[in-house]
Every structure is written in C-alpha cells, then in structure tokens.
Amino acid sequence: MTAPTDAKLKVWDLPTRVFHWLIVALFVVSCLTAGEAMKIHMLSGLLTFTLVATRILWGFFGSTTSRFGSFLKQPKTVLSYARQLRPGYAPPVFGHTPTGGWMIVALLALLMLMPMVGAFGNDDVTFRGPLSYLVDKQTSDALTELHEALFSILISLVILHVLAVVVYHFVFKEDLVRPMITGERPWRGPLPAARFVSARLALLLWLAMLALVYVYVLR
After folding, report:
1. Which DSSP letter does residue 13 get?
2. Which of 48, 61, 96, 212 might form a disulfide with 71, Cβ 3.0–4.6 angstroms?
3. What stretches of the chain adopt beta strand conformation (E)?
4. Residue 133 to residue 140: CA distance in whole angstroms
5. How far is the C-alpha of 78 from the C-alpha of 86, rounded, in Å?
6. Contacts by residues 208-211 (CB-CB < 8 Å, ≥ 24 positions apart)
7. Are residues 129 and 120 in contact, defined by beta-carbon separation less than 8 angstroms?
8. Residue 29 CB neighbours (<10 A)
9. How far is CA 180 from the centre of its chain?
C-alpha cells in the first residue's frame, strides 16, 4: 500500500479489457450464426478459443488484477464479502469481487471447452467440424450434443453474470462496466500495490495461440 488518495485508480490493463469485449462480441456472433452460417460460427468459436486460452495464460503471467491468484478467494472470504453487501454499498475491491471471481473462471472454462468440443461436431447436413475426421460419426454426434448442452449452461451463466452487474449498479451503487472500458475506477484510501505487465506480452501470447490453432486445426 502507498499513501492515501481520493482519485481514479487504474484497475484493468488494456489486454484484459480487450479480451473481455472481444469475447463478448464473438459470443454474440457465435449465437447468431449457430445453425445458420456454420463456417462463420466455427471461425468465431476458434477465435474465442484463442482469446480465452490467452486470457488464461494472462491469469498467470499478466498484471496483478488479471491474475487468478488475486481474485480466486476461499469460500470463507467469499461469504464474508457477501455478508457486507447492502443497498447502496459494496466493499471496495481492487479487481474482481470475491463473488465474481469464481464466475469468471466458470465462464472461461466453458468458453474454452465449447470450441474444443464443437471442433469435433457436425450438423448432420453439410457442415463438419475441422477435427471431426479424427472421430467416428457416433462420437461426433455425441460431441455435438455435448456442445449444445454446454451452450445451455453457458447462456445461463451469462444471464446470471449480466444480472449481477445490473444489481451491483442499481442496488449496491457500484459501476462494474465503466472500469472495464476505461481501466479506471474511483478509489478512496491507500493505494494497493500493483504491477501492470506490457500489452506486448499479451499480443505475443495471442499470436502464438492463433498459430497453434492454424497449424493443428485449420491446416
């Protein structure tokens, strides 16, 4: 901690914000193209995979607030935080809230798993996933069903996530969206110690993920 302040505090680095909004955009594209434009749906899913894989790596090598170790808390810490929530007030947190941290992990896991499973699937008409040739038709059909089941779970979590953001805004008077756009949030009190890693590392990691997907999936 450093000297007390009452100003804007940098919370989110550029890579974390870019990952977040690109994944949101690709999720929308994937939803709109499922069953309609399967090639676009496939590419959207693979791009999502590369971004999520990079975000997971960033959770180990990235900036302080982006690291899993900074926001994955023990259940007793999560419960203690939840008990302090009341209308008009949420305890100030530098980064993800203890309650939201585990939701982030669940969303990342599903967003990572769905393209992996979908790559082996088919639509029983004209489309076959880029890795479907590695399995027989029965297995491909089973993985297609799993892909659809995972989507049902994912959409439920997305709705819960959005509802939580709305509740924080209107009930607890905490804006979680603006900091994910600007990277800053109001902060009163001692400044937390934080380390922000260069965005160049994130770009290199993402390019490496793109290369791996191209070589092992698309070629």
Report:
1. -
2. 96
3. 4-10, 184-190
4. 9
5. 15
6. 209/49, 209/50, 209/51, 209/53, 209/54, 210/50
7. yes
8. 18
9. 12
CA 131 to chain centre: 24
Token pair recorded at residue 137: 């038709």
The domains of the chain, with CATH numbers, are: 4-218 (1.20.950.20)
SS3 183: coil
Which residue matches tokens 């089973």? 142
Residue 60 in contact with residue 81, Cβ under 8 Å?
Answer: no
- Cα 49 to chain centroid distance, Å, stands at 11
Q: Is the full-model pTM beyond 0.85?
A: yes
Q: What is the pLDDT of residues 1-60, one digit of tens each?
A: 444 455 789 999 999 999 999 999 999 999 999 988 999 999 999 999 999 999 999 999
